[in-house]
Amino acid sequence: MNKQSIELNNKTVLVTGSPGFIGANLVLRILRDNACKTVISLDNMNDYYDVSLKEYRLELINKQAETSKTNHIFIKGSIADRDLINSIFNEYKPEIVVNLAAQAGVRYSIDHPDVYIESNIIGFYNILEACRNNPVEHLVYASSSSVYGGNKKVPFSVDDKVDNPVSLYAATKKSNELLAHCYSKLYNIPSTGLRFFTVYGPAGRPDMFYYSATDKLVKGENIKIFNYGNCKRDFTYVDDIVEGVYRVMKGAPIKENGDDGLPVPPYAVYNIGGGTPENLLDYIDTLQHALVNSGILPSDYDFEAHKELVGMQPGDVPVTFADSKALEDDYGFTPKIGIKEGLQKFADWYKEYYK
Ligand SMILES: NC(=O)c1ccc[n+]([C@@H]2O[C@H](COP(=O)([O-])OP(=O)(O)OC[C@H]3O[C@@H](n4cnc5c(N)ncnc54)[C@H](O)[C@@H]3O)[C@@H](O)[C@H]2O)c1
After folding, report:
1. Ligand 1 touching residue 286 (CB < 6 A)
2. Domains along the sequence of the chain with CATH
């Protein structure tokens, strides 16, 4: 691996966007592995979706922290608050920063642009500035498969052109990559952006299809199937995402100078996705089986009567398909967990959580 290896033990790791869905799972993994000296969760606990889910995930983290050798500190606040970010970096001096805090969701960005600019642009800029002014060894940050927009060439490779975002959300994620490149070049900050592909799993995000469809079916409501089901998605189970992020944290782009004597930006971007896009209708079928298996819905539930085939939504794309070869080459990892196993784990969790 042509990377600067980073030992986590004795280090402080800042994870923004924990206890968000992916952030909480990453922090739980760090605590379980006793991976570092201190892990800090920073989140503004906004109510984009049910805050009680974030509180539930925070409870899981606090419980795990009781038996971990790694200390855990939770700070409630926004990455858009420059003074707060500076005070956190001054006080705790995190060596590794994982920025997952963001306003997520493609559809929400159509009607709520302000919060995307505030969290994803200003917030990310504050994180970059703090990394510039402190000895940060590696900045890892969440980008998204949405940067590929309506690209026709599949699978999506990090070498493809991604200059045509179809939502403000995608535009902010692409902007993050550009800003990170600039800071890596100017200030020699090792940074790695990760383009996540549709992440799902237990205690996931209720705004995402598998979760909202489950809620609706349980209530006896209809689910809308966009683009008449003519969509393919590269779904990625959350444990696979966490494994990828965890490995990437421990290997930073190498600092070196180019022929001009100036730093070659220690900058990289990777896809993290399953690499096996599923037809939306097959995904729904697998979800139905999982819901019946776990006893959430009866085996004679009339699923067909609760499906509405509708057109494409603005901001959405018909296909996502990750080429994760670069991640495999550099970090020896490709997501492995299939939708049958992953959706069953979600359904089992849902049954237990809402019992
Ligand atoms: N889940 C996916 O399918 C997916 C796909 C691609 C990219 N991503 C990216 O991965 C990251 C994590 O996503 P997630 O699915 O866990 O979403 P999430 O909404 O569960 O987590 C994000 C967390 O960030 C917090 N947050 C938002 N704005 C903040 C701010 N200004 N300051 C501090 N905290 C703030 C939220 O309260 C939330 O808990 C995000 O950057 C998202 O854009 C997710």
Report:
1. no
2. 7-199+236-274+320-337 (3.40.50.720)
